[in-house]
From TrEMBL:
Oxidoreductase in keyword set: yes
Residues annotated to bind 1-deoxy-D-xylulose 5-phosphate: K125, S151, E152, S183, H206, S219, N224, K225, E228
Organism in which the protein naturally occurs: Noviherbaspirillum suwonense
Domain (DXP reductoisomerase C-terminal): residue spans on this chain: 268-384
Family: Belongs to the DXR family.
Name of the coding gene: dxr
SUPFAM superfamilies: 1-deoxy-D-xylulose-5-phosphate reductoisomerase, C-terminal domain, Glyceraldehyde-3-phosphate dehydrogenase-like, C-terminal domain, NAD(P)-binding Rossmann-fold domains
Binding annotation for NADPH: T10, G11, S12, I13, N124, E126, G212
Name this protein carries in UniProt: 1-deoxy-D-xylulose 5-phosphate reductoisomerase
């Protein structure tokens, strides 16, 4: 029996995780569930899954949840705030942590799980992009098991040799390239000069995946793929030159690994996050996920093309940040979070997102990252610079 904490249980990944878990009550028990603002949803999850602990974002949310649970006769302990998130991520009563909070807010609890040596199922890519070196060192020092949930990285993981160790990096196993597939998002076929007028509603309507709002906008700008390039570099010890992005609008091949002997291994499936979630939960075994089998004859043709970096400047910004190293990816991530928020709140147009990120990366100098305090200071500076630029 695995005892699981789900950080971000009310989100898209959190709900899919509970769906997979509910199919295997003999294997998984929910130890803790966390939410930020969706208290009624969290209360319903607590009634159904009976966790030991539930965590909310605020004291008011915690009182509201406690009152709901009391009325329903659910004995779950209710806590709130970042320290509580870190506590349930590292608690000795839990074995596995699904890290599915969105954005930099997930860094502290995801890192706490890694430091405590948990089996960490990582969806919160921003945490790794920000703190790659510190995060991977924490995993190595504590002996934590890190399994990727992001569908592309989970696919790459499945296509790597069984004895793959990050220590030898991508070179050491005859790996020529990691081929990271990208759907291209909702605006792949749209004329570039009309992009400024797109609305948040159009941007979050992803053609293949149903996801949270922030990652949906990231997919539309292709910053999501940029974050994923950096995520892959850390997870698999690969250089920027070893990671190639390939547009594949159908999202059937979730990524590939190309070897020096000419073999290319791919992982295929319907675009449903329950597949990578089930893979990581059960690894190295396999369990049913509820996802329908792939019907290749219905798909018939698979399409690929190279990404256009002029059209999607965010992808280039991410490659630049990876190459610059140090805190550059954290600066980029912070600026992106502010820009996406401003776009979703209709403060700026779609094309301003990449301009704002580029401006912050040009004006805030990046630094080597040696400890968390310095990293958080860089994150703060980038957000401040982004907000100043927004005002002007
Ligand atoms: P959602 O927006 O759907 O959910 C985010 C979750 O995080 C919610 O439970 C939310 O709580 C919680 N949350 C938000 N802000 C805070 C905060 N400040 N402190 C604590 N908790 C917070 O996001 P997704 O599920 O789509 O994405 C989660 C992560 O997984 C992201 O990093 C994303 O990049 C990654 N990912 C997602 C994929 C997908 O298909 N959705 C695919 C691959 C990766 P509440 O709702 O209660 O406010
Ligand atoms: Mg992905």
């Amino acid at each position: 029996m695995q005892n699981i904490t789900i950080l971000g249980a009310t989100g898209s990944i959190g709900v899919s995780t509970l769906d997979v878990i509910s199919r295997h009550p003999d294997r998984y028990r929910v130890f803790a569930l966390t939410a930020h603002t969706r208290i009624a949803e969290l209360a319903a999850q607590c009634e159904r899954f009976r966790p030991e602990v539930a965590v909310t974002g605020s004291a008011a949310g915690a009182s509201e949840l406690a009152a709901m649970l009391r009325r329903a006769g659910v004995p779950t302990e209710v806590l709130w705030g970042e320290a509580a998130l870190c506590q349930v991520a590292s608690d000795s009563r839990c074995d596995t942590v699904m890290a599915a909070i969105v954005g930099a807010a997930g860094l502290a609890p995801s890192l706490a799980a890694a430091q405590a040596g948990k089996k960490v199922l990582l969806a919160n890519k921003e945490a790794l992009v920000m703190s790659g070196q510190l995060f991977m060192t924490a995993v190595a020092d504590s002996g934590a098991t890190l399994l990727p949930i992001d569908s592309e990285h989970n696919a790459i993981f499945q296509c790597l040799p069984h004895d793959f160790t990050r220590g030898t990096g991508a070179d050491g196993h005859g790996i020529a390239k990691i081929l990271l597939t990208a759907s291209g998002g909702p605006f792949l076929a749209r004329a570039a000069d009309t992009l400024d007028s797109v609305t948040p509603e159009e941007a979050v309507a992803h053609p293949n995946w149903v996801m949270g709002r922030k990652i949906s906008v990231d997919s539309a700008t292709m910053m999501n793929k940029g974050l994923e390039v950096i995520e892959a570099a850390w997870l698999f010890g690969a250089s920027a030159a070893q990671i190639e992005v390939l547009i594949h609008p159908q999202s059937v091949i979730h990524s590939m690994v190309s070897y020096v002997d000419g073999s290319v291994l791919a992982q295929l499936g319907n675009p449903d996050m329950r597949t990578p979630i089930a893979h990581a939960l059960a690894y190295p075994e396999r369990i049913a996920s509820g996802v329908a089998p792939l019907d290749l004859t219905a798909i018939a043709h698979l399409r690929f093309e190279r990404p256009d970096l002029q059209r999607f400047p965010c992808l280039k910004l991410a490659y630049d940040a990876l190459q610059a190293g140090g805190s550059a990816p954290a600066l980029m991530n912070a600026a992106n979070e502010v820009a996406v928020d401003a776009f979703l709140n209709r403060q700026i147009g779609f094309r301003m997102i990449d301009q704002l990120i580029a401006r912050v990366m040009d004006t805030v100098p990046h630094e080597p990252v040696t400890e968390m305090a310095g990293l958080l200071e860089q994150d703060r500076r980038a957000r401040e610079a982004a907000r100043e630029y927004l005002k002007s």
